[in-house]
Amino acid sequence: MRLIGQLEAGDLSVRIADTDVFEAVFTMEKTYRVPRPEIASALLSILESPGVELPGKAAYRQIFALWLQFRGLSFADCYHATSAMRFTEGVIFSFDKGFDSVPGIDRRESHR
């Protein structure tokens, strides 16, 4: 794990996208059946490394916290809930009633 060590030390920099995190979570959870707490711990350790450049990476601690707390929500749902709390005062337009249990989220449905 020389690469990870270099990222943690800040000796190497990589820029990643949100979709890279989504793919890692999905693969670890669905393909390899890694428990959510282990996924969160491992990925946060890497994401919070000084060598990892990821726009909005500070939000990932909250995203993973929601994902661990609300088993019925997908990682993407937790990402969207966190974004709603950060940028729209918690308002989210969705038919997914799973958002109703998340504190700070005001789920609304669009009716024409």
Offer a quick outline of the entry.
The protein has 112 residues and is mainly α.
Count helical runs: 5
Radius of gyration: 15 Å
Using the alpha-carbon principal axes, give the shape: elongated
Instruction: Provide the succession of SSEs.
Output: HEHHEHHEE
Mean pLDDT: 94
**Any idea how many domains?**
1
Number of strands: 4
The percentage helix is 40-55%
Q: What separation lies between the terminal Cα atoms?
A: 53 Å
Plain-language structure description:
The N and C termini lie far apart (53 Å). The protein has helices spanning 2-9, 18-31, 36-47, 60-69, 75-87; strands at residues 14-15, 52-53, 91-93, 106-108. It is mostly helical and 112 residues long. It is elongated and about 55 Å long. The chain contains 5 helices and 4 strands. The strands form 2 sheets. A two-stranded parallel sheet has the order 1-2. The chain has one domain (2-108).
Q: What key phrases describe this protein's structure?
A:
112 residues, mainly alpha, two-stranded parallel ribbon, 5 helices
Present the secondary structure layout:
Layout: H1 2-9, E1 14-15, H2 18-31, H3 36-47, E2 52-53, H4 60-69, H5 75-87, E3 91-93, E4 106-108
Parallel strand pairs: 1-2, 3-4
